[in-house]
Amino acid sequence: MTDEHTLAGAGAGEARTPARYAYYPGCSLHGTSREFDESLRAVAAALGVSLTEIPDWSCCGASSGHTTDHMLGVALPARNLAIAEEQGFDQVLAPCAACYNRLSAARLAVDTEAGFAERVPEIIGRPFANSVEVHNAVELLRDAAPAIEEKVAAALVPNPLDGVKLAAYYGCLLVRPFEVCGYDDPERPTSMDEVIAACGAEPVDWNMKVECCGGSFSVSRTASVVRLGRSIIEDARANGAEAIVVACPLCHSNLDLRQKAMVQRGSRPMPVLFVTQLVGLALGLTPVELGMPRHFVNTEPFLADLVQRAAERVAAEQKVKEEAAAKAAARREKAGV
Amino acid sequence: MSAHPRTLAAEIHDATGVNAATCYQCGKCSAGCPMASESDLRPHNVMRLVIQDRRDKALSDQSIWLCLTCETCSARCPNACDPARVIDALREMSLDAGVADLPRTIGAFHKAFLEQIRSNGRLHEMGMVMEYKLRSGELMKDVANAPGMLSRGKLSLRADRIDGVDEIKRIFEKCGVTP
Amino acid sequence: MSRIGVFVCHCGENIARTVDVAAVAEAIKDHPGVAFATDYKYMCSDPGQTMVKEAIEEHKLTGVVIAACSPHMHERTFRRACDQAGLNKYMCEMANIREHCSWIHEDRADATAKAIDIARTIVEKVKHNKPLESIRIPVTKRALVIGGGIAGIQAALDIADGGHQVVLIEKEASIGGHMSQLSETFPTLDCSQCILTPRMVEAYQHPNITLHTWSEVEKVDGYIGNFEVTIRKKARSVNEDLCNGCGDCQAACPAKRIPSEFEAGLGMRTAIYVPFPQAVPNIPVLDRQNCTLYKGRRKGLAKDACGKCKEACLKGAIDYDTEDTFIKEDIGAIVVATGFQLYSIGREQPEGLKGYGEYGYGEVPDVIDGLQFERLASASGPTAGAILRPSDGKEPTTVVFVHCVGSRDPEKGMKYCSKICCMYNAKHAMLYKHKVHEGRAVAFYMDIRAAGKGYDEFSRRAIEEDQAEYIRGRVSRIYRDGGKVKVWGYDTLSQEQVVIDADMVVLATAIRPQPGVEQLAQTLSISYDENGFINEAHPKLRPVETNTAGVFVAGACQAPRDIPDSVAMASAAGAKVMSLFSADELEREPAVAVVNENTCIGCMNCANVCAYGAIEQREICTVDGQVCGHVAYVNPGVCQGCGTCQAVCLSKSVELQTFTDEQVYSEINALCFWE
Fold first, then answer.
1. Of B71, B132, B177, the CB nearest to A177
2. Which domains does chain B have, with CATH numbers?
3. For chain B, which terminal residue's Cβ has fewer other Cβ atoms within 10 angstroms, N or C?
4. Are C497 and B77 in contact (CB < 8 Å)?
5. What distance in Å separates residue C490's CA from the closest CA in chain B?
6. Who contacts A264 (Cβ-Cβ below 8 Å, separation ≥6)?
7. Residue in chain B nearest C491 by alpha carbon
């Protein structure tokens, strides 16, 4: 049992993560955020984590569910947890921040609200013991940070992310409410920053880490999203970020698809990457594998620039090595060795 | 002695466990609310309506539908009054009472979203957006983005109906929700 | 033959509304041993007590039972009355028919029957009462004051002026406490040090006060009037008798960049230092944590890495090899005056508290707290009294003052109001505006608490005369935005979000007790509340006493408090100490355990269970002085009358006076056998 729970590649004594998850992609990862799903699967494979999609999974209800009916907002996610339980899993991976939040909130509701432990199984028509744990992609990657660092160091290709300044944008649902999420500080979280650092990049200190992007108003009240997104992008830029890293399909969509409306014409675009894409790049996976061409804010120039800078760094290091070797040879000659 | 009707505060307490009287109207929630500039009622105003038993205004104001459920208010409230949860409960109550005043586009979105889930089990985004446009009247919404979405493989044309869609219909029925 | 008088009290409506008091008196008057029974509206009143005294005389009573409230309320009152009438006061008992009967039942018939039972029970007990005399114990007329802030200094001066010895100990290098850090005090805007330092010097020079700074309480044994206190005098490395306060050592010290605790982190000090120029005593201490020489020693260096202060000292007062010393003092009374510390908003917090992530966890340089602002404003501070930003030393043109940071915030772990912050915020706004005339002072508040004399007027001055902008609403976020500090607040009165680009933010953080107070409380056997504040004996009527006899409390260690209230409380504690010292002997209740040496088998079970260490072994000798055995002996001065020894005694040799087995069994019998 212990072996199954060690992360492939991680040494003894390093962070251990379960290597087997029931996978809950959620509706967005099959649609508008396909690249989150693609990059997550690619990175999971590289890290030795097995993902088994929950059979016949259904929508968690996102905002519209709990916003209009409390029990609906609990029952819809609970159905998926019940299926995972039935399949014999004890961990679920839900990369979408909203799905993660709803699944976790459902767990808390069944655990703490009077009568829910009896009513919810009855409503979903399935037995439900509330035994499955729910995790998101950031948690998974944070726990795998030592393994990621090791792999990045061992990679043959120079790490294009070395020293690149990135803003970790958590948004709302990954960290609030603390009683539901609980794995990081809700005001100044650090889990995604740790992942960025493990990839060799530099997470910047900035102010909009947990401020809302406008979430589900993306379609129904876009003007609000533009207003909120603008202050997020501007703050990231003011604090030196070259790109923003997210772990939520809606945050990505709001900051990527709708970025043109938020920024001044002619200003430098701010690429928005999924945290899984970031880790994939550090591990040497290709942008195509990671779904990067699917973004609206073109990532090609950004990535090309990173590759060039990495090549320049390598060249500079090589030059220093050669000069040092030449000097050493000259000294030996002089000494007549 | 006639039975007194239940106060709004008592109903909210039953539904959420929140004691609205613990709100001392400090305004910290509203100071950090991302939608405050667009709403008539801010989170602490809503809490005040609850404790004042002003049911009509609390249930029929549009402001409760402008809430983003970002949970910032609840995270920072010094008394754990959980305004986000209270506003959730007020929305549910306003729908049950038939007095909800949803802004047109937001109402259309919720309806379209929930109807999609109810009929397919999962969100078919294309179908949802079409239904949204019909309900909201925003026929040209994101039309400019559609080609881009399609070419990037972000929009599937086929609905993704799950096998257990009857289970979903049953859940909606048992919760008494008709989108 | 018992002749017991029973007096049943109406207590106004408190008892009479539920219990038929006349019926109780009527029922009890025929009980065997009862010579007189009556009822009356207010037994504790003057006529009521007179009634008791007259009845004692008229009916030649041998015992008195007052069926009324709890003995906690009036046992003392009635016992005094009996004493005045010539009846031994321990022949008087109270039967509680209020807290134990009328206040907790509703049915009149049931309550009355129960009241009769209770009265009867106590009558039966009193039949077994013995006349007792108070125990007298000697009093050491020396007080210990723990804490050398304004409260401690005041208490020490009052007791010393009253002619008694005082030992004043302070854990820092100088007395003065937080008041010495303040710039000006409300509501008069007096210079704080100007009014404080004369008191400090007076305390230092007073012939009756022995001052130990850089010292802490190590151990406390004993009991009221007879404490034995061990004081740890921490190693100063400077001989207090030789040092003349010249300051050469500080000038010579190479370690100059240690954040100064006195400057609240805004200024630096050296490793050998006097905390501030007006320190009392003006004798430095060597901070061994940060001293180059000591760091070297800890690393195991063969040769000492520095010795500059010792070289510079012309008096030869510096000795690197001193150790902590221990001083034992005989003490009669203790006053706890350890003061407060400010809550910090940082990420690391003691258990039960949370930091303010939304305000940056203390990582934004231009967000400071009240004591730091005091140091900025202070003429002797790190900026010579100029209000300057810690980040770049520039003068701020907009300063935001935030009330209630931590206070009144159950989610952060502090439900209480810190009382003084509304006042010092007004003061800070005023000081800022006096120094930066064109500056903008904005205060975010919830309520204004300005209840003292001249306080409301003072806080209005800040608004009306100095144009401070007061906005009612709490702040959601504070963060660094380029060179500014962004503040997201709300104006609940005009209903709008308010965003301010401040140059500096001053947080009014909560008042908390000093660290280490819990251990000190345990050393003294006194209790503290959930917030760590020392508990008073009774919140209304005994505010300066603790539950441990002989230990008093004064100042902010008991609850957040301003200077005038701290001084008043200190004088009150001083008065209590003086009253304790006014007699050469203390009277103690004789409710202590007594061992019958004839039947005691010397198993010492009692000593093992005594929580107060009151039982000793005493040798029994034959007539020619040979030790032939031992018995237990209860020290009447230490015994607290808990009765545990009586419960475990194998030979039934220990009796707790006023609760002997006979007395207790008679009560039980009365309940069981009488209808």
1. B71
2. 8-96 (1.10.1060.10), 104-174 (no CATH)
3. N
4. no
5. 5
6. none
7. B27
* Model confidence at B1: pLDDT above 60: no
Classify domain C149-228+330-339+514-581 by CATH number.
3.50.50.60
Question: Is A230 among the domain residues?
Answer: yes
Read off the pLDDT of each residue in B100-108 and give the average, rounded to a whole number. 93
Assigned CATH class of C342-512 = alpha beta
d(CA A281, CA B67): 37
| Chain position carrying tokens 């609906």 | A72
For residue C267, the distance in angstroms to the closest alpha carbon of chain A comes to 27
Q: Helices marked H in C215-291 — which ranges?
A: 248-252
Find the mean pLDDT for residues C411-425: 97
* CATH architecture type of domain C593-656: 2-Layer Sandwich (3.30)
The pLDDT tens digits for C38-70 are 999 999 999 999 999 999 999 999 999 999 999
Q: How far apart are CA C377 and CA C430, in angstroms?
A: 11
Q: Say what the pLDDT of residue A9 is.
A: 41
Task: Map residue C621 onto helix, strand or coil.
Answer: strand
Give the closest of A31, A176, A294 to B75, CB-based: A176
Domain boundary among A121, A137, A153: A137
* φ, ψ for residue A35, nearest 5 deg: -65, -25
Burial letters C495-522, b for 16+ CB under 10 A, else e: bebbebebbbbbbbbbbbbbeebeebbe
The pLDDT mean for chain C works out to 95
Mark whether A76 and A190 lie in a shared domain: no
DSSP A24: -
Q: Where are the alpha helices (DSSP H) in chain B?
A: 8-16, 28-31, 43-51, 55-60, 72-76, 83-97, 104-120, 125-136, 146-151, 165-175
With b meaning 16 or more CB within 10 Å and e meaning fewer, what string describes C180-207? bbbbbbbbeeebbbeebbebbebbbebe
3-state secondary structure of A184: coil
Lowest-confidence region among A10-19, A286-295, C245-254, C495-504: A10-19
Same domain, A99 and A153: no
SS3 category, C284: coil
Touching partners of B (3+ C-beta pairs < 8 Å): A, C
Per-domain residue ranges for chain C? 4-134, 149-228+330-339+514-581, 248-312, 342-512, 593-656
Q: What distances in angstroms separate CA C201 from CA A312, B1, C155, C206, C506, one per listed residue? A: 70, 73, 15, 8, 32
My answer on whether A152 and A269 are in the same domain is yes
Residue-range definition of the domain harbouring residue A268: 139-311
> Which positions in chain C touch B72 (Cβ < 8 Å)?
476
Instruction: Kindly state whether residues A118 and A173 are assigned to the same domain.
Output: no
pLDDT digits (tens, 9 = 90+) for C508-564: 999 999 999 999 999 998 999 999 999 999 999 999 999 888 999 999 999 999 999
Predicted confidence band of residue A156 (pLDDT cuts 50, 70, 90): low
Residues of chain A in contact with residue C358, where contact means CB-CB under 8 angstroms, are: 187
Q: Which of C405, C478, C492, C500 to mutate to test the interface with B (most CBs of B within 10 A)?
A: C492
Tens digit of each residue's pLDDT (9 = 90 or more) over C264-293: 999 999 999 999 999 999 999 999 999 999
Whether C4-134 and C342-512 share one fold: the answer is: no
Distance of alpha carbon C158 from alpha carbon C160, whole angstroms:
5
Q: Give the confidence band of C675 by pLDDT, cuts at 50, 70, 90.
A: low
CATH number of C4-134: 3.40.50
- Which of A137, A157, A185 is where one domain is finished? A137
Residues of C in contact with B37 (CB under 8 A): 497
* Pair A96, A188 in one domain: no
Average pLDDT, chain A: 91
> Is A25 touching B (CB cutoff 8 A)?
no
CB atoms within 10 A of CB B70: 26
Report the gap between the CA of B44 and the closest CA in chain C (Å).
9
